[in-house]
Structure formats: structure tokens, C-alpha cells
Amino acid sequence: xxxxxxxxxxxxxxxxxxxxxxxxxxxxxxxxxxxxxxxxxxxxxxxxxxxxxxxxxxxxxxxxxxxxxxxxxxxxxxxxxxxxxxxxxxxxxxxxxxxxxxxxxxxxxxxxxxxxxxxxxxxxxxxxxxxxxxxxxxxxxxxxxxxxxxxxxxxxxxxxxxxxxxxxxxxxxxxxxxxxxxxxxxxxxxxxxxxxxxxxxxxxxxxxxxxxxxxxxxxxxxxxxxxxxxxxxxxxxxxxxxxxxxxxxxxxxxxxxxxxxxxxxxxxxxxxxxxxxxxxxxxxxxxxxxxxxxxxxxxxxxxxxxxxxxxxxxxxxxxxxxxxxxxxxxxxxxxxxxxxxxxxxxxxxxxxxxxxxxxxxxxxxxxxxxxxxxxxxxxxxxxxxxxxxxxxxxxxxxxxxxxxxxxxxxxxxxxxxxxxxxxxxxxxxxxxxxxxxxxxxxxxxxxxxxxx
Length: 452
Known about the structure:
This protein is 69% helix and 6% strand. By secondary structure, it is mostly helical. It folds into 3 domains: 2-148, MgtE N-terminal fold; 154-256, CBS-domain; 275-450, SLC41 divalent cation transporters, integral membrane domain (Tetracycline Repressor, domain 2, Orthogonal Bundle). The strands form 2 sheets. The chain has a 3-stranded mixed beta sheet with strand order 1-2-3. Strands 4-5-6 form a 3-stranded mixed beta sheet. Strand 5 and strand 6 (250-255) form a beta hairpin. Helix 3 packs across helix 5 (68-75) and helix 7 crosses helix 9 (116-125).
């Protein structure tokens, strides 16, 4: 565990150093030094760098990459939104060449997010075989095995000898196939077995693939959900998983790096769902629809608590103070839900990409949502407390305090995770307790200071 944390810290330090260095050189206009750094940097690290820069810087740095092949590889490591922005700034010829050099599954994901006319234009310019593969992959839902799979794999006839199989692998060297297994097929191209490269190398040259292959196959269908794919790969510790059709014909494979992406996506979605943040729709309206029902639910839960406390406490406590005391659960519940939703939304965005440059945009969106919630719940709360509970002047004060609590909780939920990250503390662990304590204390202070 300690070694894993140490490696993670080293990687983060290296990434931050790379980003800081390139940004400084970019401001100075030291293009030759930037090119030198880019030339020595691995494609995944360049992808991370592009996500950390603003759009103009990213486009400029992307053009400094030496070869088209490296550009295509880097493009597969960046966020889909940045992919589209980079591609749209290139001329048509270079865009087509870049997409044609990408793995078929990455190319399908990229083209699926482009405008239809541009996507069709790039597809039509690709080699017929490549374009057909990519077009086939685009037919399947993104969250299915068909949408995840790649058509770049090693498949060999079961009648081949080990020596013949090795020669065939060597002959395919120029295609740069990255494969952990050889998928063994019959004369009808149906999958009949699988063989690891290690087992192939350790076998006798005269052995036939049919005699040394594993016949107990674990496969998934084209429509299998990505969560089920991830579960199977994790359970069996596979490096890749074959995808077959109803006739057991091999259609493609899903590699472990694609599964890691799925696990991250599903974890982020589960975290958002747990915090009642909403679904995949990140738009203002989408987030409002996702969050509002649960805020409303929490509000009416607080109303129930108010009724319970006020009805049971009438025997012992003065009515004015009792109304304030009974309002406490509602105030704390709403503050907790709002701050939790906002902090989780920020935590997931911290995990996905560099969030620093997008922070204020996200903050303003959350503040806008909080403003709408404030207006709605202040009006509803005033009407309920004035007309239903007949609390008099307290209805005005508690409604205003509720509005301040919502705005404060949203602001705190935005800033605390970011501040904790800057302090090199884990925001996923520390944000919840810290925000809850501060929001509760401020809410109680406001209520009993101004409520009367």
C-alpha cells in the first residue's frame, strides 16, 4: 500500500513538474525547448499535459509533436472534448491521416463525437478496410462490449504449427499489433480456443495450435454491458477479453486499458449517484433536474422533523424558541445535501481532468443552481411557515436564513475540495467531515442569532 501511494505521489510530482515547466517556457516563447521536452515525453504524459493547458496552448503544443504517428497516439490519451477541439483546428488532410492511424476503437469513439458531416468526410477518406471497421464499431452503444472492443488482434487457424504461428506474428510486425493472447479460430472464423504468447514460445515448434490451446473460453457478446465486461476482466485477471457474435465468430477484443477507463467512469457515476448529483448530463438544466428532486425530498423530510419536534416539545418549551429549535433538522439537512452534491461534483471533475482552469466556470454553474434553489425554497418555506404553521415573523427570518444556508453550503462545497487538494490532503476523505461541521455550525449560529 505504501509503495503504491509513493508511486502515485512520484507520478503526480512528475506530471506537475512537466506542466509547470512547459507553461513557463510557453510564456517565454521558448519553442525550441518545448519541442525538446515534448520529444522526450511519453504519449500518455503529453496527453495529460494537453488537458492541463488552456485550449490555445494545447493546440499550439499539439502542433509541436514531431510525427503524425505520435500525434495520433497522444490524441487517444486525451479527453473526448479536447480531441474534437484539436481535430477541428487541423486541416482536413491531417485530420484524416491522424484518425486513420488511431486504433479502431479509439477512432470510433472520436468520430462518434464529431459533427456528422465531418465524421462522414473522414470515414470516406480512410482505406476501405479501416473505414468499414470503424463504421462497424460506431454502430454499437458506447457502453456495450461492441462499443468498447478493438478489431486489432491476433487470430490464427487452429491447424497452424507453433513455428508457423511465430513466423506469422513476425510478418505482422509492421502493423504494430499489441496482443497478449492468440485467438485460435477454425475454418469458419469461429473462436475455438485461446493461447497466451508465453505458452506459444514455450511449446515445441512442431506442436499444432489446436493441441496446446485452452478450449475453456470466457467470452462476451456484442451487446454485453460495459459493467459486466469490467467484472469479468477483474474476476479472471484477463489482459484482454474476446467479443463474439451469436455464432461464436470473433468480432474483436477488449483490452485491460479500456476496462480501466470503464471502471473509472462507473466509479465516478456511482459516486455522483450516491451523492444525488445527477446523471451524465453535465449541462445546467441537466444538473438541475438531477439534483432538485433530492433537495426537495430533503426539504420535506425537514418539514416532517419540524412537525415532530414542535408537536412533542409544546409541553416544555416556549413556542417561539420551540419553532426555531424544530427548524434545526430542516436547516442542517438541506445544507448537508447541497454541500454534498456540489463537493462530489467537484471531486469527480478533479479525478477526470485538470480542474484548475475550469474551476470558476464550475463554481459559477453551481452558484447559479444554488441561487435558483434559494429563490424556490425561500418562497415555499415562507408560504408553508406563514400559512400552514402560522409562525408569524419567524417565517420571514427562517426563510432568509435557509437561503443563506443554501448559498453558503454551495460555496463551501466548491472551494473545500480544491483547497484541500492544494494543501496535498486527500479531498475525498477530508471534504465530507469538514464541510458538514462548518455548514452545521454556521447554520445554527445564523438561526439562533437572527432567527428571533
